[in-house]
Design a protein that fits this description.
The protein is of the alpha/beta class and 290 residues long. It has one domain: Vaccinia Virus protein VP39 (Rossmann fold, 3-Layer(aba) Sandwich), CATH 3.40.50. Helix content is 33%, strand content 21%. It contains ten helices and seven strands. It has a seven-stranded mixed beta sheet, with helices on both faces. The longest helix is centred in the N-terminal third of the chain and has 15 residues. It starts with 6 loop residues before the first helix and ends in a 24-residue tail after the last strand.
Length: 290
């Protein structure tokens, strides 16, 4: 069963998690740091940078340390997250804090040299639209670097819930091959996607559910019980969930898997807009001899 993403819930969950996020976001912080390392592999000197899904600003600190002369703009759907950025003194200029949906960026065409995003695209209802917006605002030869989650994320929790009821409690995450196909269809240049599994361990299921709540990372669909904290579900249902998850316990702890997908692409300066016949025209000067 697949449920549509509830954008209001996205905004509400992350707004409520603004104060608790940093203490619980162990995985998100690790992924952010690993995605920033991929920026180091590129020879970039961007004048303008857009960070999509800024959260409390960890990615901004990493970007600013790498590109101290760049103008950095932060975008997040949850206003309290951006308030937290200001409190953390990550970005003091409120004009560079953009509270908006990534699917409709209030940014001029071809005005950004580097778009960075980590642990965000999985919460977007239409990733194709997000990629289209990224392409629109990127300057020619600008780069997009991001990380998101794949379908094996929270696999143990998904399987455990399936033994309790037939409702959807864990978000549907997109396969990396579909993401790669989207970038190709978008005519982004040199698209690259790769994946790695990160496993962390908890002493109890209660800890995991609390961290999901504290980071705003519960399922984002319309249902009354998706990934609620133990205190908000019946005691009987919670005990059944615990019993199902206990089957995964190893070496005294409960494993939690995250499938992390990394993506990169550039906006080509050579590919022009399609003509009336829907053909894409590439200048002869851009074709290298074999």
């Amino acid at each position: 069963m697949t449920s549509k993403i509830n954008k209001q819930r996205i905004r509400d969950d992350f707004s409520q998690a603004a104060n608790s996020y940093d203490a619980a976001a162990i995985v998100q912080h690790e992924i952010c740091d690993r995605t920033l390392e991929r920026v180091d592999m590129l020879k970039l000197q961007p004048a303008t940078i857009l960070d999509i899904g800024t959260g409390t600003g960890r990615s901004l600190l990493g970007l600013r340390s790498r590109f101290p002369e760049s103008s950095i703009f932060a975008c997040d759907i949850a206003l309290p997250m951006l308030h937290q950025c200001r409190e953390n003194l990550v970005i003091k200029d409120a004009r560079r804090l953009i509270c908006n949906d990534a699917e409709l960026l209030p940014i001029a065409d071809e005005s950004i040299d580097l778009i960075f995003s980590t642990s965000t695209f999985q919460w977007c209802a239409d990733l194709n639209q997000v990629l289209s917006e990224c392409k629109r605002v990127l300057c020619l030869n600008g780069a997009l670097i991001f990380s998101t989650f794949g379908p094996d994320t929270l696999l143990q929790l998904r399987n455990s819930w399936a033994q309790v009821d037939d409702r959807q409690h864990v978000h549907d995450f997109m396969d990396m091959h579909h993401i790669g196909d989207m970038m190709l269809a978008m005519q982004l240049l040199d698209p690259v996607v790769d994946m790695q599994i990160i496993d962390i361990h908890y002493q109890s299921l209660r800890q995991l559910l609390q961290d999901l709540k504290d980071t705003g990372s519960r399922g984002k669909f319309t249902t009354s019980e998706s990934n609620k904290s133990p205190g908000l579900m019946s005691k009987e249902k919670y005990q059944r969930l615990v019993q199902a998850y206990e089957k995964y316990r190893e070496d005294g702890s409960l494993p939690v898997s995250y499938e992390v997908i990394y993506g990169y692409a550039r906006k080509s300066a050579n590919i022009q807009k399609a003509g009336k016949d829907n053909e894409v025209r590439i200048p002869v000067s851009s074709i290298k001899k074999a």
